[in-house]
Specification:
Length: about 290
């Protein structure tokens, strides 16, 4: 990732870490989600757990001190186990739990214009997390990687939805703006590439048609062709860059008539004995 992308990811994580649940049950749920963080995430998660636990002590006495884990510095921080009654929990508690899971086990990458969010968990917890996220209509995929379960999203829409749900703020708006800008640039590049390819094909076709016209005119066969064929040949000489539609509008013909006339000239140039002379009568068309 670039420095700007890395800074944006850190800002998103900082905003989520600063979310202050107002309900006691949501604090407990987020603490449950924070449990089991892998290194080097342990220290930053411990700070969030300490803040949430202090809030719980103020509300519920010494209840929060019943279990504790230590961070990498040896500081003991009250925190609940990772057990969380998902099926019995209210939606706001589920959201708090998912926020804790992301802070403890999630990572976000914006490298090379691609958005990739994943959770790294023990295999059984990864399987449970997939089911929990699916209940929010954000079903991820998961696989085993070096003995751990990896839960993954690669859809930018799903990633943005998840970050909104768990409390992303101004940094998320910046991420969305970048994604919109990237999408617009991608669409514009595709249009430009398509137009460029069409232009190259049109230039090549025009050059081929002009060469065929000169070949047929030089041996006198063009003069033997029906009026419409000669008319289209003269128009192509005068406007080598014009499209079939533009030539048709100028001559008052159908586009298909212009195309057939030029194809006829190209066949004549390639096959002098094809017999495309006066025997086939062409009539001028006055309507498109």
């Amino acid at each position: 990732m670039t420095t700007a992308e890395r800074d944006l990811v850190e800002s998103l994580r900082a905003e989520l870490a600063a979310v202050e649940p107002h309900r006691r049950c949501c604090r407990a749920a987020e603490l449950a989600g924070l449990a089991g963080a892998f290194e080097p995430r342990r220290r930053s998660v411990t700070r969030v757990a300490l803040r949430l636990s202090r809030g719980r002590v103020g509300e519920t006495g010494d209840e929060a001190g019943r279990s504790a884990v230590g961070d990498s510095t040896g500081v003991s921080v009250p925190i609940q186990s990772s057990h969380f009654e998902w099926n019995r929990a209210a939606e706001h508690c589920r959201i708090a739990y998912l926020r804790g899971r992301f802070l403890a086990h999630g990572s976000l990458s914006l490298a090379s214009g691609r958005t990739h969010l994943e959770f790294v968990l023990p295999p059984d917890e990864a399987r449970d997390l997939c089911e929990q996220l699916a209940s929010f209509d954000m079903a991820p995929t998961w696989r085993l990687r070096r003995g751990r379960g990896v839960v993954t999203w690669k859809s930018v829409e799903t990633v943005v939805t998840f970050l909104k749900v768990v409390g992303g703020g101004s940094s998320l708006l910046e991420l969305e703006a970048r994604q919109v800008s990237r999408s617009v640039r991608g669409d514009l590049n595709r249009v430009i590439n398509a137009e460029s390819a069409n232009l190259q094909r049109a230039v090549a076709a025009s050059a081929r048609q002009l060469e065929a016209i000169e070949t047929v005119a030089s041996d006198g066969r063009l003069a033997e062709q029906p009026y419409v064929v000669r008319l289209v040949a003269d128009a192509r000489r005068e406007e080598p860059e014009a499209t079939f539609t533009e030539l048709a509008e100028r001559l008052g013909l159908h586009r298909s008539a212009v195309q057939r006339a030029l194809e006829r000239i190209e066949r004549l140039a390639l096959h002098s004995d094809e017999g495309l002379g006066k025997r086939r009568r062409w009539t001028r068309q006055t309507s498109r």
